[in-house]
């Protein structure tokens, strides 16, 4: 058994070594550390395992398939990407590589030989060392501003508000990068040998340029045919059919519930999205989760759950036997966070554990619930519920709010 897996199997946050424990790694927008946490489903507790001196604030994290390497972006200057090992129960820094502009997203898609990042005016492609898992040579830079403007373009985290903000790949090898300021999703093909990207097309907002949708994050159905996008400025979850030449718009769902009086979309900021995990009983995701944040601390955010059919299409709620979208108001505005990750409760179950991060000013100052574990047991079973949170209220010195947290096992 590999050391990292041995740790994950045997370490518990309570006295019973036989109790199952799931491990979590979180970053923060305000703390310069990474935080390794342990969640016990049996005890319904979330506790700190290790505080890691880092190169933060680290706002986004990604892993390799074995979950023994983690890759992070950072708001620190000069801009860098970093790699980390998780071995013998400890998170350790491996290396950092310089990049042109502060990045907001990083991913390592199959065959896991290259790392792709994006943020503001640039995106970058790095090779991954096959032996150590460290970030290696930068082989390509993708621009989202004219080349002659790059030298003077803002390359700090400020540019993330209107530049590129994410990057995801389909199983067919297409890459998609949402760009908030141009209201487009940029589509690329990827060379399977070199890892290099070639631009195919710019896909405009389905509501036209006057809507200023601001596509922020995208995810792709495992079948490789459907792309979902969250719009930051208009609070929609859009679905598209992927074709070799572009994206065909399918339809949308609002990230905000219908109520009286209606919620004002300008008071919210669309944020992140995650498909429910594939399981042995349901290989195709049957739900997609998405969040929106309050634009101010006085406005709480929302976590929305939408049903999907086996092909990844939005279910027609009028013909779905009473199955409906579910909306859950988050405890705070979420600040700059309200980011998600999901983990199946069991291979044969529909239910999931959900990580939700919180960067609200009150949370950051008081320390309560920078990372929360939620549960959703399936359609018609009571909706989303809070299970545990860390740090506890009054422990703000440990973590000043969370940014993005991921399940490690």
Topology diagram in text:
Layout: H1 3-10, E1 22-26, E2 33-40, E3 45-53, E4 61-63, E5 69-72, E6 80-87, E7 90-98, E8 105-107, E9 114-119, E10 122-128, E11 135-143, E12 168-169, E13 174-179, E14 184-190, E15 197-204, E16 215-220, E17 226-231, E18 236-243, E19 246-254, E20 268-275, E21 287-294, E22 302-307, E23 326-329, E24 340-344, E25 352-357, H2 361-366, E26 371-376, E27 384-390, E28 405-407
Antiparallel strand pairs: 1-2, 1-28, 2-3, 4-5, 5-6, 6-7, 8-9, 9-10, 10-11, 12-13, 13-14, 14-15, 16-17, 17-18, 18-19, 20-21, 21-22, 22-23, 24-25, 25-26, 26-27
Please name the defining characteristics of this protein.
single chain; 409 residues; mainly beta; four-stranded antiparallel sheet; 28 strands; disordered N terminus
Brief digest:
By secondary structure, the protein is mainly beta.
Question: Can you characterise this structure?
Answer:
- The chain is 3% helix and 43% strand.
- By secondary structure, it is mostly beta strands.
- The protein has a 4-stranded antiparallel beta sheet with strand order 3-2-1-28, with no helix packed on it. Strands 4-5-6-7 form a 4-stranded antiparallel beta sheet.
- The longest helix has 8 residues, at 3-10.
- The two termini are 15 Å apart.
**Average predicted local confidence, pLDDT:** 92
Q: How much helix, percentage-wise, in residues?
A: under 10%
Series of H and E elements: HEEEEEEEEEEEEEEEEEEEEEEEEEHEEE
Largest sheet, in brief, is: 4 strands, antiparallel
Structural class: mainly beta
Q: What Rg is obtained from the alpha carbons, in whole angstroms?
A: 20 Å
Strand order of the largest sheet: 3-2-1-28
Counted by DSSP, the helix tally is 2
Overall 3D form = globular
Distance between the termini: 15 Å
- Based on DSSP secondary structure assignment, what is the total number of beta strands? 28
Q: Report the uncertain regions.
A: 1-18
Share of residues in strands: 35-45%
């Amino acid at each position: 058994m590999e050391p990292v897996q041995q740790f994950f199997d045997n370490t518990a946050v309570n006295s019973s070594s036989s109790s199952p424990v799931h491990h979590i790694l979180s970053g923060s927008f305000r703390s310069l550390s990474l935080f390794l946490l342990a969640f016990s489903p049996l005890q319904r507790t979330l506790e700190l395992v290790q505080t890691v001196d880092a190169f933060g604030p680290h706002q986004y994290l990604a892993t390799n398939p074995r979950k023994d390497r983690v890759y992070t972006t950072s708001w620190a200057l000069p801009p860098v990407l970093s790699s980390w090992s998780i071995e013998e129960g400890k998170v350790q820094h491996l290396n950092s590589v310089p990049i042109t502009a502060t990045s907001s997203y990083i991913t390592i898609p199959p065959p896991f030989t290259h790392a792709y990042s994006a943020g503001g005016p640039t995106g970058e492609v790095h090779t991954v060392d096959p032996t150590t898992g460290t970030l290696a040579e930068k082989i390509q830079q993708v621009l989202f501003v004219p080349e002659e403007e790059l030298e003077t373009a803002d390359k700090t985290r400020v540019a993330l508000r209107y530049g590129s903000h994410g990057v995801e790949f389909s199983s067919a090898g297409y890459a998609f990068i949402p760009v908030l300021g141009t209201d487009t999703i940029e589509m690329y093909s990827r060379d399977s040998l070199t890892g290099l990207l070639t631009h195919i097309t710019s896909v405009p907002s389905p509501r036209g340029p006057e809507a200023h949708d601001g596509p922020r994050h995208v995810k792709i159905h495992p079948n490789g045919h459907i792309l979902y996008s969250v719009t930051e400025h208009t609070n929609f979850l859009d679905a598209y059919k992927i074709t070799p030449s572009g994206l065909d718009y399918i339809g949308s769902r609002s990230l905000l519930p219908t109520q009286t009086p209606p919620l004002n979309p300008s008071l919210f900021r669309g944020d992140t999205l995650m498909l429910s995990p594939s399981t042995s009983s349901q290989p195709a995701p049957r739900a997609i989760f998405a969040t929106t944040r309050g634009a101010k601390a006085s406005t709480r955010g929302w976590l929305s759950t939408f049903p999907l059919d086996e092909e990844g299409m939005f279910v027609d709620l009028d013909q779905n036997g009473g199955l409906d979208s579910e909306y859950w108001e988050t405890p705070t505005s979420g600040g700059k966070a309200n980011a998600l990750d999901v983990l199946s409760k069991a291979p044969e179950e529909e239910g999931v554990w959900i990580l939700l991060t919180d960067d609200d000013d009150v949370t950051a100052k008081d320390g309560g619930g920078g990372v929360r574990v939620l549960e959703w047991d399936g359609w018609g079973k009571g909706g989303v519920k809070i299970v545990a949170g860390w740090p506890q209220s009054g422990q703000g010195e440990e973590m000043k709010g969370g940014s993005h947290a991921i399940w490690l096992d």
